[in-house]
Amino acid sequence: MKSVTVKTEFKEYDIDLRKGFSNLSDTIKKSGVKGKKICVITDSNIEKIYGEMIKIAISDYFDEVYIKSFTAGEKSKNLETVSDMYKFLLDNHFDRKSVIAGFGGGVAGDMAGFVASTYMRGIDFVQIPTSLLAQVDSSVGGKVGVDFCGTKNIVGAFYQPSFVYINTETLDTLPEREFSAGMAEVIKYGIILSDDFYNFIWDNKEKIKERDKDIMSEIIAKCCEYKAYVVSNDEKEQGMRAILNYGHTIGHAIETLKEFQLIHGECVGIGMVSAMKIGVDRGEVSQKDLDKLKELLSYFDIPVSTDGLNIDDVYNQMFLDKKVSDSKINFVLTKGIGKAYVTSDISKDEIINAISYVLK
Ligand code: ADP
Ligand code: ZN
Q1: 51 to each of 40, 77, 302, how far by Cα in Å?
Q2: Superfamily of domain 176-358
Q3: Is the CB of 237 under 6 A from ligand 1?
Q4: Is the dihedral of CA 77, 81, 83, 86 positive or negative?
Q5: Which ligand is nearest to the CA of 227?
Q6: What are the catalytic residues?
Q7: Residue 88: what pLDDT?
Q8: Which ligand 1 atom sits closest to the C-alpha of 132?
Q9: Which of 317, 221, 219, 304 is nearest to 269 (CA)?
Q10: Taking a C-beta distance cutoff of 8 angstroms, is the pair 116, 100 a contact?
């Protein structure tokens, strides 16, 4: 199966897409990870389903394997859980040569990465993502961190893993809602980078919904290539990497205001509709494309609007986002499908119109 290489300033690593966990030890060996002691950080759901399986697979290479789990869900992604992990590592004599694995969805990966980046000023870190969202997005590129005081990912670091190992078969057990949320990020790659890929998703939507193995492998590989390409060009988000935030500016504001009612990918779906509405108003995207996006998102049960929110609240929340600099919002827009650009030249009226378009 496929491998994709990510090249960053100090590190080059592979994303290996495989069926099952049996190739994991090969990936570990070729990655250059040296330690023989590992702590697998995972959530309570994943531990139940895959705990034994990962332990067996990883014991092929590591002499000492520890599994440390936390209660599944975004609510656990905080410094308290991190502190609990530091304690676990200290109690079990983890040292500079030990390794940490993030095993699970984005929450496990982001938090494990943050722990790895700070414990003893940084120890080896590997990613084994199991949710679609983590496989196509959050496990690649080195953004790690936790939420703090109601703001998502506000405490964190750039810390690249030594490898990403994607067992595509873990998608079999992913809950429907999480699968849909992951599809929002998949669709995003098409909109910002490739109309061919966007059309591919459209043409294969039935098979995707059935989670057809071959199609899903192809899709995940493609998304990893896109993400690797963007991250390799702009690791620290000085420029191009910002296009990955398509749909995220308004999406994040909605996510914060709808605290724990809507999940990340769902808010990205709503945010993309909103961003594309700005494109339509500017005459850069056709109404037909916007209607098609809404149809595609709806097909995957991703919401295209939300209720119970006030326009001004969403607008103000956007300015509290960490990506605002000098109170200017960097907005990602597209010219048609497949060509994203970043601009701060956007009026309050345009934003207000776009927000009201997705509020019921
Ligand atoms: P995300 O991956 O969307 O950033 P989480 O890490 O919270 O967010 O994962 C979403 C939910 O899906 C969690 O409850 C997690 O336990 C669950 N999950 C992740 N991967 C799988 C899987 N392969 N099988 C079953 N449940 C999974
Ligand atoms: Zn996202």
Answers
A1: 9, 20, 30
A2: Dehydroquinate synthase-like - alpha domain (1.20.1090.10)
A3: no
A4: negative
A5: 2
A6: 121, 143, 185, 227, 237, 241, 245, 248, 252, 264
A7: 98
A8: 2
A9: 304
A10: yes
- 46 CB within 6 A, ligand 1: yes
For the record, the structure tokens of 296 come out as 């595609």
Q: What are the tens digits of pLDDT across the range 182-233?
A: 999 999 999 999 999 999 999 999 999 999 999 999 999 999 999 999 999 9
Domains 3-172 and 176-358 share a fold: no
* Distance (Å) from CA 311 to ligand 2 centroid: 22
By CB atoms closer than 10 A (0-12, 13-18, 19+), residue 136 is buried
Residues 329-338 have pLDDT tens digits of 889 999 999 9
- 3-class DSSP state of 125: strand
C-beta atoms surrounding 159 within 10 Å: 18
Find the radius of gyration of the CA atoms of the chain.
20
- Condensed to tens digits (0 to 9), the pLDDT of residues 248-299 reads 999 999 999 998 799 999 999 999 999 999 999 999 999 999 999 999 999 9
Q: Is 60 annotated as a binding residue?
A: no
186 annotated among ligand-binding-site residues: no
Topology of domain 3-172, per CATH? Answer: Rossmann fold (3.40.50)
**C-alpha to C-alpha distance for 178 and 216, rounded to whole angstroms:** 15
* pLDDT for position 326: 65
Q: Give the helix/strand (H/E) hosting 25.
A: helix 24-31
Q: Would you say the C-alpha torsion 66, 100, 4, 297 has a positive or negative sign? A: positive
Q: What is the Cα–Cα distance from 48 to 43, expressed in whole angstroms?
A: 9
Across the range 97-115, mean pLDDT stands at 98
For the chain, give every domain's residue range: 3-172, 176-358
Taking CA atoms, 230 is separated from 159, 164, 224, in Å, by 16, 16, 10
